[in-house]
Each structure stands twice: as structure tokens, then as C-alpha cells.
Description:
By secondary structure, the chain is mostly helical. It is built from 17 helices and no strands. The protein has helices spanning 6-23, 28-47, 57-68, 72-75, 88-100, 105-126, 130-139, 142-145, 150-167, 171-184, 188-200, 204-217, 221-229, 251-266, 278-300, 315-331, 334-356.
Amino acid sequence: MIYLSVVPALLISALCYEKSRARYHNTTLLLYLLSAFVFLPLLLISGLRGAEVGLDTQRYLELFRHIREQSFSELLVLNSHGTARKEIGYEFFCKFLSLLNKSGQISLFAMALLFLLCFWHMINSLSESPFLSIAVFYGSGLYISSLNIARQMVAVSFIAYMYFMLLKKKHLAAILCCLSAFLFHRSSMIAAAISLLFFFLPVRRWIFGLVSAMALGFPFAFLILQKFYSIIPKRYAQYLLYTEGLHFGLVTVLWGLEFLLVLYLLSFIPDKQDSLTRYDRHIFCCAVFTVLYISATFSGGIVRYADRMGFYFQFGTMFIFSAAAERLRRTQPRFIYFLYVCIVYALFIFWIYRHVSQDISYHYQFFF
């Protein structure tokens, strides 16, 4: 199965990096090269996939053909191509690509490139255990979802990169990332507002309030969500149809592990706001994003499409797994660290297998 062919590259690269990190002080260049060795096949799988791979892929190709036939001035007119309007940023993105190549395949490749570049740079810059973060990125569903809802997942990558720019205090770049995400998918503005809210809020009182509310509200989740979604405007009703019941299965095990890691990492964050380092702020934000991701995904079991909002916060899980690994490496016996890393790799390799085991066969398509 082509999706699992990435796993050997991931494990070999991770082993080489760990060996080099133990021997050399500066391994930044090696890290970027080894991680590119993993991300390149991901790009080829995503960018060269045929129309049969992914639920919305055929629709993206058809929309590209519509946009290709329009002029730039016509694209500014609402519903100029006779279909439900997509975000103007995505339309102009496709129009510029059509000037380079007439095949709609180039739009799939370009979206895959944007999506993966953001996460590639972000993981290499922020993660203390980069290949563990890549395993989470690949196995948790972020990557596989980009084969289906590619346009929204590009917006997800822009929101994640906005957070990265905020950490580096590059506020203009963060604004541009936020705007780009909105021009690709309007739902990203909700995620951007929530991300900014928690990025600048005091740490302890808000995170423990959120965690406590989630824990106490879990038994009453259905009634709470039913009341909340009853006040949503009717024009959004297509996204808020109730499903027949709760069917979570094994994903609750993964949520439980992520929740425990959040509590473990938060116990090391200082109480005082003025004593926070950039790393403390990063861990706090990723803990919040992980809780928000779990909450949104849980809501998706009750309300259709609510889980899609969870994608905007799921990148936090990549960093809580790696942060926990690094803390164990520094403070616990090597056997404990090794056991944890093996469990995480095994868990997400199993998870990627679950995601793709029932998928249709992979077909590729070149755009030249």
C-alpha cells in the first residue's frame, strides 16, 4: 500500500537523526535534509493523486476548469462561473496556476506543496523531537485529510503558520497568514480568533478552567451541544444536522493519551505570567489547541461537520507528543524514554493503517 511506503523512510530518517544528535552539536542542516526525505514522498503522493483519490478531488479539478475559462475581471463578479462561489483567494490562486499549466493537476500539486511546506518548516523549527512530530502529523489524520478537503487543509496550514509567526513575534507575517487562510476558507477566521485569544491570555487560570469545564461537562455534552447549536442561524443548518448517535471507538484511547500528556506538560509551566519563556508559551498554546481539537472532534460525533473545526487546532498534538518525549529523555532513565517513543511510533503507524486500509486503490496523474 503506497501510503505505508512512507513509514520506512520515516523510521530510517528518525534513527539517523537520533544517532547524529547524540554525536554532533549542530544538526540543523541534517534535520532539514532528513525530514525532506520524508516529506518529498508525501508531496508526490498528494500532488500526483488521480481524480479517484479523495472525496473532493474530482470537484477541485472541475472547478479549476471553470476558473481557467474565466478572465480575472469575471472572477470578481459574484457567481461568475455559474456555481456556488468559492473563496476569492482560491479562485485567483487557480487562475494564476492555469496560466502556467492547463491541467487541473497543477492545482492539486500546488495545494499539497503549500500545505506540506508550512508544516515541514514549522516542525523543524519548533519540535524537540521532529520525527516524532512527523509521525503524529502523518498518522493522526492531518495529512490524509488533505487528500480529501485540500482547500480547507491549506487554510489549516496557514493558521498553524500564523501561530508560528506569533511565537517569533513577526506580527505582520502572522496577519498575512491569517488573511491567506481566510481567502482560502472562511471558516478559518473562527479558528484564527480563538487562536489569538488563547495566545495572549494568562496561562494557568484559562487552561485549567478549560480542562475542568471539559472534564465536568463530558457527561452532559449532548444536552449542552444541543442547546448551543439550537441558536445557530438557519443558513448554517447543513453543517449542524444531528447524527444518529455517538460512534467514537478507538479514537477515545488516543484522546485519553493526549489529555494525559496535556496535564503532564502543564504541571511544569510556571504559575506567574511574567516568568514564562517562549517555550512555556508554546507548550501552553499547544495544550490549549489539543483540548480544543478533542472538544471539536467529539462534537463531530454529535453534529455533522463540527469536527472540521478541530483540524485547525490539531497541530498542537504534534508538539505535545514531542515535548513529552524530550522531557522524558532529559529526566527519566533511557529505557523509559525509548519505551515511550516506540509506543508513540507504533500507535501512529497503526493509526495510518486504519485510515487507509479501506481506501480505494491509489492512482497517479501527471500534469505535464
